[in-house]
Design goal:
360 residues, alpha/beta, Rossmann fold, 15 strands, disordered C terminus, lyase, NADP
């Protein structure tokens, strides 16, 4: 039985990947940071079924900033595969906490790779790289040969980890691969990310629980896919016959405004956009009420306007292609967030949205 260690298992991708690997017969070990309040809502359903505790799923406390802890855990588990998904994952926050972002996102993968080398582990390593590394893009679309041009501490930290992964592959013979994933979403996406802000915010507006949705750059274009599709290719990357780097994307771009319009349509809200630039507003055509406003606080010091990936290599070598369209993705998220908003109405108070997730 293969053993897999997943860092960042309590996040969106980590939880879907854990489900995938357990379904393939793996023993799955998850690394979570110690916190005073529960933070395992996305994986709680994996601990046990109706009859017994899951014998193949384990959680361990650890942190990518603690080398000695990583050595102890990896020596104990002796994993066959390591999926490093842990990160300070919010681009906006990275401008406020650049040192912390670099410590976790850049030095964290280095600590794992050094542990692999020093313990002489026969393990396959996956590094979660990001489309934010391309930043202010130098070519359209972006593929594995496109130069990086990061515009945030987050993007730069991921560039460091990307190249360190390649160096350990070529210099030390570690089976180490990078997956350069473009934006990917799901009902399990964190609440601070723009897609969840949109679907949950509009669900609350639909039910009268919220009046206005405040957003940043509506013109930013992103290549949005479905997280569950993307963890499938993450697994395939480590099953490839040799370590390599792969761009993972849909090849389609949509603006934040398009995401808002698509979600609004699902909720039966017809928007009319008025005004120019940062004074623009989205009005409800039926009532004239302001539903969407631009908030200066949500603009980044350096904006990344356009990202579009070319996943031809992954399609050709890994046999992968996305299965969920942009429209379907927005619908998945809107459906789930409407359930949470309806629960708030029922309880008469806000609910902890990330307390429980349906396995969708």
């Amino acid at each position: 039985m293969k053993k897999a260690l997943i860092t960042g298992i309590t996040g969106q991708d980590g939880s879907y990947l854990a489900e995938l690997l357990l379904g393939k017969g793996y023993q799955v070990y998850g690394l979570q940071r110690r916190a005073s309040s529960p933070n395992t809502s996305r994986v709680d359903h994996l601990f046990e079924n109706e009859r017994e505790q899951n014998p193949n799923f384990f959680m361990m406390y650890g942190d990518l900033s603690d080398s000695s802890n990583l050595v102890r855990i990896m020596h104990h588990i002796q994993p066959d595969e390591i999926y490093n998904l842990a990160a300070q994952s919010h681009v906006g926050v990275s401008f406020d906490k650049p040192e912390y972002t670099a410590n976790v996102n850049a030095l964290g993968p280095l600590r794992i790779l050094e542990t692999i080398r020093n313990l002489k582990l026969k393990v396959k390593f996956y590094q979660a790289s990001s489309s934010e590394m391309f930043g202010k893009v130098l070519a359209i679309p972006q593929n594995e040969q496109t130069p990086f041009n990061p515009q945030s501490p987050y993007g730069l930290s991921k560039v460091f980890a990307f190249h360190m992964t390649r160096i350990f592959r070529t210099g030390y013979g570690v089976f180490a691969s990078n997956g350069i994933l473009f934006n990917h979403e799901s009902p399990r996406r964190g609440l601070t990310f723009v897609t969840r802000k949109i679907t949950l915010g509009l669900a609350r507006i639909k039910l009268g629980l919220q009046h206005t949705l405040r957003l940043g750059n509506l013109e930013a274009k992103r290549d949005w896919g479905y997280s569950k599709d993307y963890v499938e290719v993450i697994w395939r990357i480590l099953q490839h016959n040799q370590p390599d780097d792969f761009v993972i994307a849909t090849g389609e771009t949509h603006t934040v405004r398009e995401f808002v319009d698509e979600a609004a349509e699902y909720f039966g809200l017809e928007l009319e956009w008025v005004g120019v630039g940062r004074e623009e507003k989205g009005l409800d055509k039926k009532t004239g009420n302001v539903i969407v406003e631009i908030d200066q606080n949500y603009f980044r010091p350096n904006e990344v306007e356009f990202l579009q990936g070319d996943a031809s290599k992954a399609r050709r070598l890994l046999g992968w292609c996305p299965t969920v369209t942009f429209k379907e993705l927005v619908k998945f998220m809107a459906e789930e967030d409407l359930k949470y908003a309806e629960e708030e109405v029922k309880l008469g108070r806000p609910v902890v949205v990330q307390r429980k997730y349906l396995v969708k």
